[in-house]
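Suppose a colleague, Dr. K., hands you the sequence of a protein chain of 233 amino acids and asks what its three-dimensional shape might be. Before reaching for any lab equipment, you can write down a predicted structure in token form. Begin with the sequence itself:
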Amino acid sequence: MSVPQLPLALRYPPDQRLDTFVHAPAGTVEQLLALATGAAAVRTDNVYLAGASGVGKTHLLLATCAATEAAGRRAAYLPLLAAAGRLRDALEALEGNDLIAIDGLDVIAGNREDEVALFDAHNRARAAGVALVYAARDIPDAIGLGLPDLRSRLGQCTRITLSPLDDEGRREVLRQRAQRRGLVLEEAALDWLLKRVGRDLGGLTALLDRLDRASLAAQRRITVPFLRQTLGS
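The predicted structure, expressed as tokens, is then:
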């Protein structure tokens, strides 16, 4: 069966690039860029991203795909939530890419058919020199995978653990993403927001999208009074 390609704008949003990720663990961007470009001199093992929801795993997967295509190579992003129960067909449809980013391993944990399909695809990819980047909420032994051989293969990947952003990290994300949208966030407005928003990267992006639309519609700068009016007290 064929797997439809995701629209370019959805696959690679402008905010989600390797160089826009805030406070990545040391060496993370270099490792993912090496996979994306296929740089022989610095080629790393396949990468496994672990971390709670909202820490930026999907950001890094999409950013790695974008970097791969920017290097003139082919990439595919596969959210397992959309492929659970038919994973073998979905993975076979992605063969021929230079890099495959697989998001949400937790979704297939305990589904033996899907686990076997992923194990087989992992082996084929390694044999063909295809780079793999995985993402899950925790390490392979802690997400409920039932197939020991799959856990072993995933355990051989370079593991990168992502943590929630601290206050300074959230401030930097808001500041950078506002700048890319042409929004001016006063320090007082940043302080107000940081007291009221969570650490989830997706939530921060959605919030700025909302503020961007609201400020454009109202033709107003983003000040504390505007935030109170738009978001409530």
